[in-house]
Amino acid sequence: MKNSILPWHIGGILLAASFLLAVMIVKPIGVSTQFVIADAAMWDLVQPDIITEDSTSKSGYASPNAYLNKSGGKYAKNAANPLNYSFIFVIAMMFGAFLSSVTKGDKPTREQKHMPEIWRERFGDSRAKRYIVTFIAGFAVLFGARLAGGCTSGHMMSGMMQTALSGYLFAAGMFATSIPLAIFIFKKNK
Amino acid sequence: MELLLAIIIGTFFGFALNRVGATNPENIINMLRLNDLRLMKVILLAIGLSSILLFAGMYFGAIDASHISIKTAYCGVIAGGAILGIGFAISGYCPGTGLAAAATGRKDAIFFALGGLGGAFAFTLLYGWIKGNTHLFDKIAGGAVSIAQSGNDKYEALLPAINGSVVGIALGAIFVVIAVALPKKIL
Asked: What is the ipTM of this complex?
């Protein structure tokens, strides 16, 4: 069955509504920080002294790790209490995507579940190859996002919506590598 | 209450991501190779429309300026964006769409997310060193600044002399015009 994707202008309105609704009711949308929160929560399970309660810190939590301890232990606090707005938001986002995919949204076929068509045409149908490469790509994406302090949703969409300089700089950096690279690696060989 | 809002807004956002085709890496890759710019038109229109409505909403008092949250501009924003762009082009996933795609049953997106947990953890360990030994966290143009005056005193504007609503709505309108004018295919 053909996937039903909205016409671009309707899609744009829907996406605009979600970003606007978020800033109107709570705060701008962001996703990539929650990878750090998930990491830190797991890290704390293995090594319980990585997040400690600390009444002298602004958030009430502290960490010997400089990143988790930054901004008054903000990340340490959220990792100690994963049932917070931003973390639940990301879980709900996944649920929303699932809900859409089972109600005539974009749903991958059996083959697309492992890799997109364009990858198969260019690099063959080895699943292991695609999985290893996407793992490495995911590593780069989140490392880059944390260095940048946000990702496509936080910096580019939410940031540019608010006319933030950082959003423009992020988009410039991202497209400067992604466009030439995508053109180069996914060149059609016909 | 806040958690209920997280569930409602998060679900709506994830639903929208899937409905515009952003959870399909094929669409992302085709956008980046300038072969199918439909998704780029969606993104530009979304930024433009939300910007217009945000600044209009703040002007009419329907949106509280305290909700504005401007991220700091520093060298690492550009460098990090560039590193992200490499993985984005190869996989066709960014952090949000990768997780959303995994939820629609894409197995490669699960590996993307696992790699993402690794990358975020590597950064968590290296942050202290990067901060102490590089200039990547040096602020650009004052750091947390916006082009338009946001009405939130925490952030400075690059164009303080002009009314913030005018600048915000004008910039939003420019995005909408580009979204409409952009061809669906360049290469």
From this structure: 0.97
